[in-house]
Design brief:
The chain is of the alpha+beta class and 630 residues long. Helix content is 37%, strand content 20%.
Amino acid sequence: MLTLQSNDFRNKEGSSEVKKRKLFFLTILVVISFILYTYRLFSMQVISGSSYRKQSQEISQRTKVLPAKRGEIYDRNATLPIVVNTDSFAVDIIPGEIPIEKYDTVTLKLSAMLDIDKSIIDKKIPISMRRSYTSVEVKSNVTFEQVANIAENLNDLPGISWRLKPMRTYVESIGSLSHIVGYVGDITKEELKVLYNQGYSNTSIIGKTGIEKQYDMILQGKSGLESRTVDVRGRYLSEEPTIQTPEMGKNLVLTLDTDIQTLAEKALGERIGAAVVLKPSTGEILAMVSYPYFDANIFNMEDGSALYAKLLNDPQKPLLNRAVNAAYSPASTFKVIMSTALLAEESFSPLKTIDCSGRIEYGDRTFKCHIGVPGHGYMDLKNGLAQSCNVYYWTIGRDHLGVDKIASYAKEFGYGQSFDIDLPGQSEGFVPTSQWKERRYHEKWLGGDTMNMSIGQGYTLVTPMHVADMMAMIVNEGKIYKPHFLKEIRDPITNEVIETIKPEVIFSSNISQSVWKEVKEDLRYTVTDGSAQFPLKNKVVKLAGKTGTAEVAQYKNSWHSWFVCYGPYDAPPEDAVVVCVLVEAANQWEWWAPYASNIIMQGIFANQTYDEAIDSLGFRYLSRPVGRQE
């Protein structure tokens, strides 16, 4: 037993000695490694530091972004480009590459070459940035002659470079496309913070409004890179650059027909308002006009910022797309929904008459029909719609439908809701309810509110797009397809169709087919025997539709003029076209909406230009706007 214990003790003692030796050698190794690394760092930073610094200053790799061209935009026939790219240049400064003592000399000479004031450069490159190696754009839309002049004097212009910056050019023949296509501009710091991880850089050009913004990622393309070795003066040390070729963005084919766009633009004329032309069976927008409009090419001009500021301050609001961004009282066009609701609810026989004496007494108010005393006489539903009799619709709204049912049917037609059209920033409009008024104004909903709502006045607000799609619901007998501008996405090189946009139902109704049939018949009767017979006579296409005149408090003896229609009346939905025109009360009153709608329909179905259409309809003497009301 004693022998075993002695052996164990010697084994443990030997093991302890081994561990001590290993620890000693490991410590020596660590100390030696530390000394070597310390010496190496000291050698690089102190002994050879000046040499390395000189080498890093004299030789560097310069990488230049090669911008990709944005995809082009075409009309529905894919033959005529609406937006194209034109070659242009931008001049940049890397402030850190300019010796401080030469900064003013270099920038003064550059400003003279670019024909700009030196203060513009100083504003873009404040003193705090003058040691920065971040590239700053000094001027875009620079001519080839200016770039050539800079290249010839490059030795005197350290830190100065240029790059290709394709410029967007918009067709000038159709000014009303500006609201649809939009425009592009330099990316802002705020936008870059959001989009940096999606491949954007501080030199990116992005869509600011319209289709340019909505489909920016598709149009953007993929930038390339050019890398070369340069010396401290920016002179190339390598003969051939390493190039990653940029990829052009995809081309877009829109649903727009430029011939119909021109027709609608001229039919509306210089009247503040909007027009929408729609294929109800697919939701394709054939034309959309909002007046006044603007020239998107101003953003390529030297004084573009000043011109933009002028547009912002214009009281006529030319930047506003009135077709989708502005909301109005629907006026008597709302009676189409009222007629549909009455037939669907079967709450009052369409054959039963209501006596219109030109006025209704309710509470402490007198509600007057638009024709005044002695009124329309006895009106059934068909004639009430054709003559747009307020007394008829006041009565059925107040006594037979009520606010909740009216609101429910309005929403079924898409009112008070977004259509998710592929344009940024659209108005949803508004459909009031009794609960809303109590919450908003702390007042009870009254019968007079229902009466106002029944004729499209009061709190209800819609856009021209809403009204056009209301008519599309009737044409399709219970369906509204998502209105859209994008038809196809195509490869810019092969022109191969990459994606085709398919129709999408966004609102549907369970109203019976018999109701839709009767509403269509009544809308046709409204055109042939109603209050707008003369402006709607057309031998080429049978129209069905409804007028509307909305009172506007600030304009005396002037109203919003509405007309919405479809045609051909007896054609299947896939062959039909919906047209909606709004002329604001800001114009002197001339009841132009039905005339403009008929001109558009005549031009489409007779394949005529605007001038041919107005001559065929005998509207030549009426075609010029009478001016704005003072």
